[in-house]
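TEACHING EXERCISE
Course module: macromolecular assemblies
Task: Read the component lines below, then compare them to the predicted structure of the full complex.
Student: A.B.
Group: 4
Components provided:
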Amino acid sequence: MRTVLTISMIVVGFALQITSYFFLAAPWNPLYSNPRVPFAPALFILGVMLVFLAAVVYELLPEKQVQ
Amino acid sequence: MAEQQGTLPYGIGRFSARLFTLIAGLLLLVAWGLFTYSRQLLEGLVVTGLRDIGTMGGAAWGLYITFDVYFVGVSFAGITVAALIRLFHLDHLRPVSRMAEALTITALILAAFSVMADLGQPLRGFVNLFRYARPQSPFFGTFTLVIAGYLFASLVYLYLDGRRDAALLARRPSRLQGFYRLWAAGYRDTPAERARHDRVTLWLALAIVPLLVTAHSTLGFVFGIQSGRPGWYSTLQAPGFVVMAGVSGIGLLLIIAAIMRAILPEGERVHRGIFRWLGTLLLLLIVAYLYFMVAELLTTMYAGSRHETEISRSLLAGEFAWLFWGSVAGLVLGALVLSLRFLPASFQARIPTISPRWGMVLGIGALILIGLRALQGLDLFSPFSVTTARWLAWLAVALALIAFLLLLPFLTRNVVAAGVAAGILVNFAAIGKRVLLVVPSQTQGMLLPYGPGWYKPTWVEISIIVGLFALGILLYVLFFKIFPVMEVHPTEEGAE
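Instructor-supplied answer key:
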């Protein structure tokens, strides 16, 4: 459970970074400098934080109790 | 309760009269910085020396951005050292690991405040960054990777790294017991938990090293990819920035380590081997930086455009020459001090023993004179005529040289003192080089037909920067008054 949650957080974090960087913030749009979606840069930052937060989750979640 | 407090290691929770005086002094400086910042906020950036480039003949980036670059640079060493210790099992450096981590976090907080100070409307800037920032811009990388990624990663690293110590200290009754329990979050130091922690820190270290190189490079790219600004446009900006970041950060870490060694009862744990290792690393970084600097200057002087050459001339023999050569002297002397211990033992034995007292007195005298000359140069305090000030500057240089020669025997035999001396020299040099990175290209590097500009910081800017330094020291001191500066030794943990 702990490993699944940690890996999920890392995957979601990277996905958020890639999506916000390459699509939502529209780096290839030659006409407008504003991001396509407002606060897309904040989503990128959230993605970075999520990846590192996964380390805290991995360490803090208790071990699965062995019967 | 007082007795129980006294049992915590590394002086945690103990506040002497001297420490209270230091904290009061720092709080005063922070308050002064806040007052001057409130003035800037109310009256606008007109109270600073910052002006538009070209049309107003000024510099839009000045002292605030200089120190933003400096603080971000200092932050480099902290987490790098901590990550390298974990990755390469450099266990003999573990005593400075937490000092380094805290240095990174403090420096990054100060860097963020420096940028905020530079903004006329900080709140607007802060909101708009998250709303409209363009990922193509190196500023985006600087703020997201440095502030969000790097600071957050460092906080996570510090938190997880400190859990074991928090758990050990939570077993002992003290006023901070609740705080330690909260930090430990159920950690019991079992073999399974230790193994898990090792895995996590290894992955964190692996993730942090490329992140910090990227993050620091983006700040170099802020300057390096501006093709319309001679002096900034250079491939070497990013790598040069990373190397200089290492120089200033390792230099500051050496100073902090020496202070901890001197003031803590357990200070001997910060052993001489740490100073030798960090000193050697610092020496290599200084040499690499000097190589970059010479390569850059040779290229611009030999084959640069007219504007590039003008900037280089202003550094080598013009308006900024005193700062340029002063910074180079700081780096070279720092490297020289660190090289002394590589002299053959037979040669070291022949060096006469001279008390360092006179060297230190002359050195302080030289620093005071240089400070007075700098204040006069900035039109902030002008007690002397121009001719007298010029002679005083030469007197300061002569005193500094004599002081250096008198201190050489002491520095040859004392690796800790050599580390501190090199740390001070390279940090002054780093600040000088950061000023030279930020200012001359704005005042002298115009492609449009404007005349050369000028920039002189005002008392407001200087006060805010002094306030930021005071805030950084205050945060650092207070943190280590509630949390151990080094890993808790089994004999100190108070475990049953």
